[in-house]
Amino acid sequence: MKTIINKLTMFLMPVSNMPKAKEFYADKLGLKITKDYRQSDEAWWVSLTPGGDITITLTTYNDGRVKPGFMTLYFLTPNVAEAHKELEDNGVKVNEIKDDLYGPGSGVKWFNLEDPDGNLVFLSEK
Question: How far is residue 106 CA from its own chain's centroid?
Answer without folding.
Answer: 23
